[in-house]
Amino acid sequence: MRSEDAFPRLRALGFAEAAAQALAAHFLDAERTGRYGHGLSRIEWLETLDGIDPGARPRRELSEPGYERWRGAGALGYLVLAAVVEAQLEHPPEPARLVVCADTFPTGALGYWVRKLAEGGLVAALTATSPRRLGHPHGGPKLTGTNPLAIAIPSSDGRPLVVDVSMGRVTHGDVIRGAATDEELVPFGGDARRPARARSGARVPPARRGRAPPRRPRLTGAQRRKASTSARIGSKTSSDAARGATVGSSSAARRRCSSASSLRPSLAALQAAQYSTGQSDG
């Protein structure tokens, strides 16, 4: 599928112009960033699904200080999260807010949604439930879900730091588009690979049994006092930064800052629950 075909084909499915634009923006961003399992192949996938209601709209069932509950109400999960993100940016949390979304499938690339929140000055964490899709690398029944997680943090240079991970070695989207088999959907880093090196294929070195750990060098009294002082300072700096990241004010978040320790944005934590559909976007 060509990029220019995305919007017309979504309109052909019956989605209104604004909804089709929101969906196309997500799919095209996934294509640009190499997350093809969440890209244009999903439009072809949507065309095969029965029971899609293009006119359905998500609804906010509850809104309290620090907490909101949304329900998909038949709308695609992409559009649920689009509405939630827009609502959080229009009325930022003060100082933090948990948003729970039910009947929200598919969620798409979670990093896409948290990046939007971070670009608006919010620290954001988004996770999604999943049925059992991951089996043991050596075979057997599915044991646990992919349970993706994305976190985004604003930056002083305007480019948010975004981490978007799934517990699978491949994504469910890769299986849908035929780029991977269901048997390959195993826990991340299967084959006893280190997660951080799984993409490069680096093997985990065998355990060194029977060897004592290396001895630490002896420190003089002055060195011990200096290390203790440094540890106390580092601990205070870390706790200050953590407190700012979780309960800081949104007004401070809008101020450009030059260091991570002075960044105190609001926190928007979202959970997209998909369990009622029995499906996951992986």
Q: Which properties best describe this structure?
A:
32% helix; disordered C terminus; alpha/beta; two-stranded antiparallel sheet; seven-stranded mixed sheet; Ribosomal Protein S8, Chain: A, domain 1; 282 residues
Summed up:
The chain has a domain at 57-193 and 265-277: Ribosomal Protein S8, Chain: A, domain 1.
Could you characterize the architecture of this molecule?
- The chain is an alpha/beta fold and 282 residues long.
- It has a domain at 57-193 and 265-277: Malate/L-lactate/L-sulpholactate dehydrogenase, NADPH binding domain (Ribosomal Protein S8, Chain: A, domain 1, 2-Layer Sandwich).
- Helix content is 32%, strand content 16%.
- It is built from eight helices and nine strands.
- The strands form two sheets. The protein has a seven-stranded mixed beta sheet. Strands 5-6 form a two-stranded antiparallel ribbon.
- A hairpin with a 2-residue loop joins strand 1 and strand 2.
- Helix 1 (6-12) packs antiparallel against helix 2 and helix 4 (77-90) runs parallel beside helix 5 (110-119).
- The protein is globular and about 75 Å long.
- It starts with 5 loop residues before the first helix and ends in a 10-residue tail after the last strand.
- Residues 192-213, 228-264 and 274-282 have low confidence and may be disordered.
Which architecture of one domain does the CATH hierarchy give at level 2? Answer: 2-Layer Sandwich
**Residues in helices, as a percent range:** 25-40%
Query: What is the H/E string?
Result: HHHEEHEHEEEEEHHHE
What form results from the Cα inertia axes?
globular
End-to-end distance, in Å?
Answer: 22 Å
What's the gyration radius in Å?
A: 22 Å
